[in-house]
Amino acid sequence: MPKHPTRSLSFGLLIIALALRFFRLSSQSLWLDEGGTWSEATGRSWPSLFGDLFSPRQSYPLYHLLMKAWTSLFGDSELALRAPSALVGALAVVLLYHLARRLSTPTVAWVAAGLLAINPFGLWQSQDAKVYSMLMAAVLWSNLALLDLLDQPKPKQVWLWFVSVVLCLSLHRLALLQVLGQVLVLVLHFRQSVWHKWLWLGFGLLTLGFMVGIRFGLRQDPNAPPIGRTIGVFQAAWLLLGRLSFDRSSSDLTWRLLPVGLALASGLWLTWSHPRRNIILSLWLLPTLLFLAVLAVGSPLYEPRYLSFSLPLFCLMLAFGLAGMTQQRWLNVGSIVAITGLSAWLVFQQPYGIWSGNAVKEDYRGAVQTLAEHVAPDDVVIVQPPYIATLYQYYASRVTPDALPIARGFGRIGAIGYDQGEFDNDYAALLAGQRRGWLLIAPENAKAIDPPNPQYPQDDMGKVGINFLTADLNDKWRCTDLPYWEFNALRILCQSFPRPMQVENLALVGTWSIPNSATATWDHTLQLEGYQFQAWADGYQAGGTLPVQLAWRTNSVLAKDYRLFIHLVPALGAPVAAQVDTMPLNGGLPTSRWQANQAIHDQVAVPLPKNLAKGQYLVVLGWYDPTITDIEAQRLPMTASTAQHGANYIELGTVEIE
């Protein structure tokens, strides 16, 4: 065999892999599972995380322990949380090169490493604050340690391999699939050894332990995120091919999987005649077959990332096949370009590629940012399912300096016997006496604990979601211009209560109190009966909002949909420093739908730019007709006011920006 590759070549491969994995590393929002990593690493104590190492119900305890140490040193930003995955993901590329070099030619090794470096599924795992990229690298190191043990069966090699196995199992319990493959390699290699029967016994016991663990170890808590899906074997194999190849659904790829399928088939054929076929097939094929066998007995375990540790050897099989299809020393350049070029294109593809610029992961950052721009201090914010509160909490302190309302949830939803009556009681407990409620919901996650009612075709969010969606059909106001605002697998809904809601029977009775303040009338019809600034705990700060509560009435039906504006100015006549321009209830209740003499209350949040200078600002409010193009002519005239005002605005007072 040719000489071992130089350190400089390995270093160059590492630099390329690092560049690919750190590119746009923090561009995507954290998604649900990454929020779980943050919560575990920053919210739990060292002793409790150490205790998890010995708990059979903890899937990847060592990872959370390592992440706690990492975040203690480097913080918990999106970049910091994902950096370990990016680092070890790049290391996995180098380790695959060395593993492939031990099993085949330098050319096959370079191609295998190159395929892994640009593989979309590998890039996703390397830009995800989860264990799978780290597990990939650990399994590769364990495989290298296994080869050392086979070549030199000495105590040192035995202990190094054993340590690597413990590392893999501590990172993720499903690494046992790979360990079973490694034990089978030892069984087949040491046929003449006195330890042969003990190795067979160990293989059998590990297999039994794995099956028992799968049978009894799956999470049963209905309020926890689902482990995976129940799926058929052949469908799983087909979908896994698409994910491992290009991180896409196989049905979306169709003919694009042809070069991968040919290379994989060729690789399997050539491996059968390979002198170390027992090693290659045991390390790659056995874990895959065991995973499919688990699915065959109906376990809800289908999730492609659970088999992500097999991706490097999948790339190695492709490299074998690409080499064999040409029957030459050098690989078919066209085949390599086809696969790597398609991989590079898919990571940039709109709208699904991780580097496309679109929100590919659940967009909690965008959703919480939008909430922060609209909520008031006395609003109720509900999250569904309750466990997504972790992501709300993470971003609430990052997108605004304001102390946003604490997220609330329906804690018992999904429990056995939880019916509509109990939901109504919980709903009243959360919202009775409140003026407005916001809902942040992840519909696909919510379905697991609050399935939609098939009797209502429009219901795809369950009891909680349909309650907010139909607010304007149930004596409430919808306080968004659309049925919901959408943020890639997330939705924001809002409902406002025209009158206080009773706890006992959910009836809306009485009236809301009107702030004791100045009044005003525009165009003899639009009446401001009261207003007040709502203060955040730490005052008004640049980058936050100025919430204003408004009480309105009209003495006649309005034919047009007028818009209101609120401006912050250092002084009259000075340029506007901050403003909001909106229809009432964020467009949910246009003025053309107001009834004569109906009490209308609204809460408007004025975004305060991050570069807004400290100091006092005058707040003015007015109305305009957007159908008129001339700016001066479109503003409604002021016809009465008990406060300082201009021809078309009222001065609400001054606020201090801290």
Topology (elements, then pairings):
Layout: H1 7-22, H2 32-43, H3 46-52, H4 61-74, H5 78-103, H6 106-118, H7 120-126, H8 132-151, H9 155-171, H10 176-189, H11 196-217, H12 233-246, H13 250-253, H14 258-272, H15 277-296, H16 311-326, H17 333-348, H18 364-372, E1 380-384, H19 389-396, E2 407-408, H20 420-431, E3 436-441, H21 443-446, H22 462-469, E4 477-478, E5 485-486, E6 491-496, E7 520-522, E8 526-533, E9 545-554, E10 563-569, E11 578-582, E12 600-607, E13 615-624, H23 631-634, E14 638-641, E15 650-657
Parallel strand pairs: 1-2, 1-3
Antiparallel strand pairs: 3-6, 4-6, 5-6, 7-8, 7-14, 8-9, 9-12, 10-11, 10-13, 13-15
Helix pairs in contact: 1-5, 2-4, 3-4, 5-6, 5-7, 5-8, 6-16, 6-17, 8-9, 8-10, 10-11, 10-15, 14-16, 18-19
